[in-house]
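# nightly structure sweep
# worker-07 picked up a monomer target from the shared queue
# config: single-sequence mode, recycle default, output format = structure tokens
# input follows
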Amino acid sequence: MVEKTLGSSADESSAAGGSAADESSAAGGSSAAAESAAAELSFTQASVTAEGTPLVGIIIGSKSDLEVIQGACEQLADFKVPYELVVASAHRNPEKVHAWSASAVQRGFKVIIAAAGKAAHLAGVVAAFTPLPVIAVPIKTSDLGGLDSLLSMVQMPTGVPVACVAINGARNAAILATQIIGTGDLNYQKTISDYKHQLANQ
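# output follows
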């Protein structure tokens, strides 16, 4: 489902994101400019959204991360948690990341999952622009085995925390996201309780 939806539409969104980024940069990169850019970006063209208003925003730094983040998408689907997935790099598309993060609350997200590899600053950058909890998924890399991704995510400065799961721990990120949502929604709290009972009986 992820790979089918993300194709030429993602390229179109990248083009739209480029023009929005230019406008946002000209405006001085302020929060207001980021929100304006968010309104112009067509996130749904570059995202996979389950039925219903997305409660979880998933952002990955590259299409190559889709194979790993698929586990989170499947787990959220099993829990019937609606989500949105967007591809945007903190280094290659910083204005797009800013706009997406800054508009997350107004679009109804409750928690964000950010996955990236190597110098994986994505989760930290997202956390800087939103009051929502951010869960980081370090992606395994060919050169350092994901240790580079892990350290980039867990070594956040005081005041801008991110939660961090294991290397390639996308399913745990989805479970934790559902647990966070469950603190304010008894239906999802029951979903997690039922899931834990299933684990105990395996």
